[in-house]
Amino acid sequence: MTISYFFAYFSILFLATIIPGPNMLLALNHGANHGIVKTIYSGFGNLIGNLSMALVSILGLGIILITSGVVFNSIKWVGVAYLVFIGLKMILEPIETEEENIVDVQQKLSKKKSRLFLDGFFIAISNPKGIIFFTALFPQFIDLNNASVSEFMIVFVTLGIVAFGCYMLYGALGFKINSLFQAASFRKIFNRTTGSLMIGIGLTIAFLNKIVEK
Prior knowledge:
Blueprint: H1 3-18, H2 22-58, H3 61-67, H4 69-92, H5 102-125, H6 129-137, H7 149-180, H8 184-213
Helix pairs in contact: 1-7, 2-5, 2-6, 2-7, 2-8, 3-6, 4-5, 4-8
């Protein structure tokens, strides 16, 4: 891969990733509610999810999933259901106040780490459009049949850096918002807003699916 091709690949990847969507909305919410350190766990989950989608596309399974209407639509509806679920969880999640017992918070921490990781992972893989994007993107920059190991490494490492970096950027923005507005009432409104947006994205995908099916 030449330098010009690399910068073109990086630019497309960055622009597609930085645009607000379910992944970045989750990062914003986690940053505001759990802080930067804990958001790293969901960031790693999101990273693994994105790399998994990319690997599926590289191996050619993306084409099979896209051409198989039953499988692809099944993934779509699972994604819709998960987006609605995660949105409802944001809305209904209890707000931790300063008066809450510190010991109780520490006891919840280990469970939160795994939960945050899984949230990030499932949000990444719940949108089948990611497979379409990667399947269309990679052949434009590398010959999948003749590419060297180093070229594949460049593609995956760049994807990982961009995906994790953008995710944490939104997480930092969420943390900044939370540091400016410490009131529990604000966090409740913020959670309801981001949760409603997540549900809205899921229902929009469902609505568009129905139009396509017609």
